Amino acid sequence: xxxPISNNVVFILxxxxxxxxxxxxxxxxxxxxxxxxxxxxxxxxxxxxKCEECRTGREQLCPKPVSxxxxxxxxxxxxxxxxxxxxxFPSSPLxxxxxx
Length: 100
Description:
The protein is mostly beta strands and about 100 residues long. It has a domain at about 15-25 and about 35-95. It is built from one helix and nine strands. A three-stranded antiparallel sheet has the order 3-4-9, with no helix packed on it. A hairpin with a 3-residue loop joins β1 (about 1-5) and β2 (about 10). The longest helix has 4 residues, at about 50-55.
């Protein structure tokens, strides 16, 4: 997508498949992040969790991946990546920069 700007300058808007944000709420079983942590998630936000690849820690090779952008999550919601106001992810793909 190109955004025309005055003075013959053009900015290119490119969505990236990674998101950085702050945790606002967590579920009862989440242990690897806390509310208030700044976290990031890569291009893969979820996987089936049942195939051989998922069971052996290779979720990036899952035949049913859920991408952060332009995919449909397990609840049937379309994913908009970094364009979203708020997102929900399983805790496993999140990377925290919390220092203890």
